[in-house]
Amino acid sequence: MNSANPELQLAEDFVRQTNCHVFLTGRAGTGKTTFLHDLGRKAGKRMVVTAPTGVAAINAGGMTLHSFFQLPFGPFIPGDANYLGRHRYSREKINIAKTLDLLVIDEISMVRAD
């Protein structure tokens, strides 16, 4: 797949052969998004691609983190009883999350730590 780039080939092999986390980074134009698209076609794993913004999600061929995890638009406190009482995940999202092999978060540097 990535014979021209041994680092990307190593990353592909690692993703295909393990269930470990991978943090793939590089300058713009180094093939990260192309790698992501190729991985989706060839990895043989159930994969969801997410990104923090709509534009990044479209470029990556996925959906926003808020959409996938059904997060509210405003701030909330995880574990808040009021929020948990009003919020329910759809059965489809629960099934997807339970059977997922690979969760990709493109443009992870744009995600807030809090």
Q: Gist?
A:
This protein has one domain (6-108).
**Overall structural domain count:** 1
The proportion of strand residues reads 5-15%
Report Rg: 16 Å
What class do helices, strands and sheet pairing give? Answer: mainly alpha
Widest sheet: strand ordering? 2-1-3
Overall pLDDT metric: 82
User: What's the number of extended β-strand segments?
Assistant: 3
Largest sheet report? 3 strands, parallel
Bulk shape = globular
Instruction: Name the poorly predicted regions.
Output: none
Order of helices and strands: HHEHEHHHE
Account of the protein in words:
- The chain has 114 residues and is mostly helical.
- It is 44% helix and 10% strand.
- It has one domain (6-108).
- It has helices spanning 6-17, 32-42, 54-60, 65-69, 81-86, 91-99, and strands at residues 47-51, 63-64, 102-105.
- It has a three-stranded parallel beta sheet.
